Structures are given as structure tokens and as C-alpha cells.
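Subject — a protein and its fold
Fields — amino acid sequence, C-alpha cells
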Amino acid sequence: MRNCQKSFRDAILERQQHPLHSGLYKLREVCWDLGIIHRELDNINDFKRGRISEWGLECCTKDDIYVWLRGLPEYIAQLLGGKVLPALEALVADGASPAEIEALRPWLRDQAARLVDDLEDARLDIRRAVGREYDRMRHGNPLLQPLVERAIRLTEEALSLAPSLRSCD
């Protein structure tokens, strides 16, 4: 099993040992985390382009950007398996319709699994040569940013079932 798939699967198994009693707070937490990640990817891009100093980085230092980027795909896979999918199930405690949860479940699982596969491809690419990701960032076509955006959209899909919150905004 490849690393992102293992992280995803391990997170699912770990969550089974500690089930969620409510899903809304966990989805909000994921939105927060993904928002920070998205912003840091922008910061790294700006730093690499000389638009901000190293002090504009929030989650890593200029010396460990590559370490942070290399760990990101597995971390996002972990969020999907350990928080997003279980939080969908737990939304029933927040007033979401069980029928709507049941209807969304197969699609969300499928999309999460596809995203995990794409995260693994990105992980391998960045592990081989992180400089290529820096170049892609500078040219406006990074690997990681769109994957984070997909994770945000999946989280928002789950949130759309919660009566009190509909998006990560």
C-alpha cells in the first residue's frame, strides 16, 4: 500500500476506535486546517517569487519548506480518512438528514479515494524533485494547490448537509 493510501486507511481505522459524536465541529476544524494550508502554499509561492520575505511563512521556515511540502499529501489523506468521512456520518447528531447523508456517502468516499490517489502521485513527484513543484508554483500550475482545493470542496459537500453551516468560508 502506498503512503497516502496507508495514511488514509490508518486514519479511518483510528477513527473507528474513537468515533465522533458530532460532525459539524470536525468539519469546521478541517476547513480551518485546509484554509491555513492553502494560504501557506500561496505564501511559499510568494516567497519563492521574492514577493514576501521568509517571515511571511506561517507553517514552515524557508529551510524546511521542502519537508512541509513533502508531508502535505499524507496529512491531507489523513484528514480525509480520519475527519471528513467520519464527520459526514456524525452529522446526524447535528441535525442533518440521515437520508441525505446516505445519498452523499458513496460519492464522497469515491471522490476522497480518487483524491488520495492523486495526493500519492503528487507525494511521489515532490519527493523525487521538490524543485519541480517550486517551478510549477512560479508558473501558476502547482500540483498541491488544486489538491487542497479539491479537499476543501469535499469538506464543503459534507458541510452542505449541516443545517447551520454550508461552506468553509
Notes: The first helix runs from residue 3 to 17. Helices lie at 3-17, 24-48, 65-90, 98-128, 130-138, 144-159.
